[in-house]
Structures are given as structure tokens and as C-alpha cells.
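Why do we bother with holo predictions? Because pocket geometry can differ from the apo form. Keep that in mind while you read this record for tryptophanyl-5'AMP.
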Amino acid sequence: MSKKSKVTPWEVEIKDENDYERLIELFGVSKIDDNLLEKIKKHTNDLHILLKRKFFYAHRDFDKVLDSFEKGEKFFLYTGRAPSGKMHIGHLIPFILTKWLQEKFDANVYIQLPDEEKFWAKKVNDYEKIKELAYYEAKIIASLGFDPNKTFIFINSEYIKNLYSAAIYVARNINFSTAKAVFGFTGETTIGLIFYVSLQIVPTFFENSYPVIPCGIDQDPYFRLQRDIAEKLGYKKASTILSKFVWGLKGPYTKMSASDPSTTILIDDDFETIKQKIMKYAFSGGQPTLELHKKLGGNPDIDVCFFWLRVLFEENDKKLKELEERYRNGTLTTGELKEYTALKINEFLEKIRKNMKWAENNLHKFMYDGKLASKMWNWKFEPKV
Ligand code: TYM
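The structure, written out:
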């Protein structure tokens, strides 16, 4: 990593594409290459753009998981979100891919909402507010279209009795020096956060088959530790599918922060807010004047709007290519590109807004009494060895 770059689940600092390459070596993961994409496509026919455009760029063992799948062994999906403030569009990335994989592979999905994590990390101070927020975020996630009978969404503080039956074993098998080396804990870290590591590992033991975990690469450290202890407890090593980070509004490799509205689009933003934020804050690869832009053209490689379209919001490859060409040759202005991006993001969020009522009415199935959820309220960890 470059000197200043840092990636732990609580601090993410990526400076350029080289840092992503270095993370592959540092974490010992594999690149998602065309061979793997072809292998996935054999089962799915098409590829989600998050895979096709390689925003999910690294993985552990997903090729092995697919080999077993071909022999008739199913896998399950697991991911999560730690409520802290409002959710932004970056937070949706792992859930979008998870939903697609559920549909294509007919897999069970487990979604953890650890309401204690950001409180113990001292990222938020009002625990009661966070707990309330967890239900709202559960609805946002459900509204992406997960199957209510094959998806279990749980809030840690509610489901803790079940989680604890496994945490007892997990916490015994990880010592402080290992956790410190992996997560960078210091003398200032709360003891809550140190124990929390075991709670994020537990759901990888919900079934006997392979756990597959789509998430941002910052979350990989948990699952590296899981792989050290899984077989010892008689379970399978976790497979991860890892994404890069969506840039914030302020420019390439900047962060999205829900507490600073000038850095991101929130799931709750209406069309007017989306438009205003993009017009005002989105870092542009365009020229300083319209005249110069028409003469010299813009640079889509550093343009936040173009980046967002490429990552998620413009699914049509032909249209994306056309936008790129027109931006480079100056016939598409920054204003027009921003306007188009605002429309596309709004189109995407409109689907969520429309589904929220359905999600609200069906939340009980996801959390308590759907087919998978009702089974999971009776789940108890059984060490196999
Ligand atoms: P959290 O709530 O910080 O983030 C939720 C998920 O969103 C990813 N993410 C992003 N992805 C792309 N671009 C961004 N700008 C961006 N910002 C955040 C994160 O990598 C994460 O996958 N500890 C977890 C919650 C958790 C979890 C899990 C995550 C519990 N169990 C299992 C993954 C798998 C957390 O704080 O996520």
C-alpha cells in the first residue's frame, strides 16, 4: 500500500487503483478474471454489471464454490450493514449483487444488522436511535427485492441469544494478538469492538454448506479470521466476493460520508436534492468554460458522474460508450452529463421508494416468520468437533 493508505473495517483510505492491486497481495485474495466470469455465466446466462465491469474485483474461493455447485452442493449468501446514520448509494452495492446471486443460484440469504458495532467503535453516540434506524434500514434492504421466504434479516441485539451459542466458541478460538494484527486494535479500542469480531463471524456457520459473502474489501479481515477457525469447528471456510469503493461526490477516491451531505447521495434523497447535490458538488472532468470544453473535450476517467454511471446506473453498454465518446470529444457538456446522471440515479431510487410499502408489509417475514426466518429463530450452533 502507499504510505498513507489504510484499510480496516473502520477506516478506509484508498488513494488510487494501485492500492486495490496491492490489497489483493496484502490480503492474499484472487482477482476476478474473465475465466471466473465465464464460469459464473454458465449458471446465470448473463452477468450483473457489478461483475461484468469488475467493480467486484477480487474473491476468495468463489471458483471452488462454483465447482462444488456444479456437483450439486448448494451455497448460502451472507452480508450485512452496521446502522450508523443514513444509508448512501455506496452501501447498496453488496446488497444489489447479493440479491442477484440469490435469484440466479436460488440461495438462502442472511443479512446481519449489528446495531452495536458503530456504537462500540464510537462512531455514533446515541444507541437507542441506532436501534430504531436498524428497522428502517432493514426495510430499505428488503425493498431491493429479496425473497421473503429465503432471506433472514436480523438485528444483533434481538437475535443475540442464538448468535451467542456460536460466539462462545468463536471468541475462544481467536486470541488478542491475532485480532490486533488483523484489525489494528490499540489500547484505546473498546473491549466491545474486540468481542464484536466474533459476532460478525457467527453467521458464516448458519448452514453446513459454503458461506459466500459479497462485501466491500474493507470487511475481508473478519472472514480471513473465520478461515483460520472454521474447519476446527467442523464448518466450511468462507468465500468472499470483494468490491472496490464508490467515489464520493468530491472526486476520485474520496469518501462517501452519510454525515456530510456534500459527499454523497442518500437513499432518502428526492429528485430535487439529488439534482442540486450533483450540480453543486459533483467533481467534473469537464473544462472550466463551455468554449474550452467544446474545443478540448472532457475527461470521463476522473469525472464522478461518469464513474457512477459506469459502476451502476447506466446498464446499457452501448449508451455508456456513446456518453464516453461524446464527453471526450466535447459534444456532451458537463451540465448535460450531470443532468443525465441525476435522472438515472433518481430512476434507480424510485424503484426503492415504490417498494418500501411492500417491504414494510413484509418485514415480519424477513425478520420473524417467513420460511427461513422462523427456522432461524430455532437455530443453535453445534460444534462438530
Ligand atoms: P457498513 O455498514 O459500514 O457498510 C455496509 C456494506 O457497504 C460497503 N460499503 C461500500 N461499498 C462500496 N462503496 C462504498 N463507498 C461503500 N461504503 C460501504 C461495506 O464494505 C459493507 O459491505 N461491519 C459491517 C456490517 C456487517 C457486514 C457483515 C458486512 C455485518 N456483517 C457481513 C459484510 C458482511 C459494516 O460496518 O458495514
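The pocket of tryptophanyl-5'AMP is lined by residues 9, 78-82, 90-91, 93-94, 112, 114, 117, 200, 213, 215-216, 218-219, 243, 245-246, 256 (CB under 6 Å).
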